[in-house]
Amino acid sequence: MGLILSGVQPTGNLHLGNYLGAIKNWVKLQNEHECLFMLADLHAITVHQDPAELRENVLKVAALYVACGIDPKKSVIFNQSRVSGHAELAWVLGCNTPLGWLNRMTQFKDKSGNDREKAGLGLYAYPVLMAADILLYNATHVPVGDDQKQHLELARDIAGAFNRNFKTEFFTIPEPLIQKTGARVMSLTDYTSKMSKSDPSEYSRINLTDDNDIIRNKAKKAKTDSIAEVTYEPEARPDVANLINLISVLTEKTPQAVAAELAGKKSSDLKTMLADSLIAVVEPVRTKYLELMNDRIMLMKILDEGAAKAGRIAGANFSKVKEIVGFI
Ligand code: TYM
């Protein structure tokens, strides 16, 4: 493995899906590899953001990265808008991306809703910017959750198209790193939809900043079914299986082992076990996060140093791209 890059959009809180699907894996990877972890603020503004809130959210997410275990001494933490190469390379790549490829992106279809004419160009071009994020550093591996798979495939296609068009092998074709468990954490209230920041119901997700009372309350309201006794039957009892699966990812036990512990017990016991396993993971992150948010100068310093380091790698690579494309 060469260089690793990934990122999260700093729009509001991070939730457990972001942690279990992506960040938890980053923490392991940083011990063995050169890693860059971005706060994708350019991606965030594809949907209007209040400027003061965006500033606050960038600091919050930086604090959450560190609270989750990303060590700024080992990994580069930076916000995307500080390195101009992201937007510049996105333009060059956009000129090598057929519209047909972008029209296939399911996330754009979901996010633009019924009134596609009103969706912004940024939302449409979003996956090209994501390709630029990765290719700007010639990252070899990109650790993400399952929902980013299609964007990663597009990044690979765009790298290939650029290389072909300019008869070069400059861009590395990046590989996705998607975990076997936790890559798709589902909503607590609907086993068919993924846990997401944009779900209107707060009860659908666990935020990494939720306190223990909120977590217990959300676990209590999580969806089960009308059968009293807990069993693990994903086909017949998907709501109960969804909660058992989540406990399994949180505790790193198999779903069968979790179900065995709950044999003969009731759904209220399942919910207590869910709350306990959630708190065991979220509480230490939240505690550290609250501590870090008291030291904004230190957070700004992490972002300053990160932007400088990322900028050096990006600058060297983008100069090469300009040469390949024919810019003087
Ligand atoms: P974002 O901010 O939507 O999500 C950040 C990371 O969390 C993962 N994730 C999940 N994993 C499991 N279960 C879930 N329910 C769940 N929800 C989210 C995502 O897969 C992702 O890994 N476009 C990206 C940010 C980005 C990026 C990049 C990522 C911008 N440039 C370059 C990698 C490389 C996004 O919006 O992620």
Offer a quick outline of the entry.
By secondary structure, the protein is mainly alpha-helical. It has 2 domains: 3-183 and 295-325, Rossmann fold; 202-290, Tyrosyl-Transfer RNA Synthetase (Orthogonal Bundle). It contains 13 helices and 5 strands.
Q: How many β strands by DSSP?
A: 5
Low-confidence spans: pLDDT under 50, at least 5 residues?
Answer: none
Give the spatial strand order of the biggest sheet: 1-2-3
- Share in helix: 40-55%
Tell me, rounded to a whole number, the average pLDDT.
97
Helix/strand/pairing category: mainly alpha
CATH architecture of the largest domain: 3-Layer(aba) Sandwich
* Overall 3D shape: globular
Text of the CATH class of the largest domain:
Alpha Beta
Secondary structure blueprint with pairings:
Elements lengths: L3 E5 L7 H14 L5 E5 L1 H4 L6 H18 L7 E4 L5 H10 L4 H5 L2 H7 L8 H15 L5 E3 L5 H17 L9 E3 L34 H10 L16 H14 L3 H7 L5 H26 L3 H30 L3
Parallel strand pairs: 1-2, 2-3, 4-5
The structure holds tryptophanyl-5'AMP.
What does this structure look like?
It is a single chain. With 328 residues, this protein is mainly alpha-helical. The chain has two domains: 3-183 and 295-325, HUPs (Rossmann fold); 202-290, Tyrosyl-Transfer RNA Synthetase. It is 54% helix and 6% strand. It has helices at residues 16-29, 41-44, 51-68, 85-94, 99-103, 106-112, 121-135, 149-165, 212-221, 238-251, 255-261, 267-292, 296-325, and strands at residues 4-8, 35-39, 76-79, 141-143, 175-177. The strands form two sheets. A three-stranded parallel β-sheet has the order 1-2-3. α3 packs across α12. The structure holds tryptophanyl-5'AMP. Tryptophanyl-5'AMP is lined by residues 5-9, 17-18, 21-22, 40, 43, 130, 133-134, 142, 144-145, 147-148, 183-185, 194-196.
